[in-house]
Write the structure tokens for this entry.
Amino acid sequence: MHNDLEKQAPTIQYVSAKTLFPIIRQLLNEHQQASFTVTVMSMWPFLCHGRDQVVLDYCSLDSLKVGNILLFQTEQGNYLLHRVTALRKHQFQTTGDGNYFRDGWFANDCIIGRVVYFIRKDKQIDCCNVKYRLLSRLWMILFPFRRLLFPIWLHIRRYIRK
């Protein structure tokens, strides 16, 4: 009987963003970490739907930097997990790594938290890691060419997987 319990797959429960993210906000405001599995492709190729889990921490405004990945809520009530591409006095601009358009400017007070690391295939990848930071910085520099790079990468990727 004991072996049957061990063989059961873990239960996966899907929760709406409107339910999950206020709880995450509360945890981060209490200076605890929170995590969730990415469920969109707007941060591909760095974060992938269903594959990667992000771990967030509280984000103080004085530590906010270009290149950080933030979870924030827009004025319209939408939740976004995108990379900071520019900063102004009381605002930040973001772009999804998988997008070829900017999201616009947002007030600093809509920030919920910052991704400190993510988990992929049981491996923890620290967002402060030098290799990760160089790759993400290069990807930000290549922003004007993403529209051309995506189809090329998808074409090449078919041959790599064979």
Remarks:
- The domain at 11-160 is CATH 2.10.109.10 (Umud Fragment, subunit A).
- The chain has a mean pLDDT of 86.
- Helices lie at 2-7, 17-29, 130-141, 146-160.
- The beta strands are 34-37, 52-57, 69-73, 79-87, 91-95, 104-107, 111-120, 123-126.
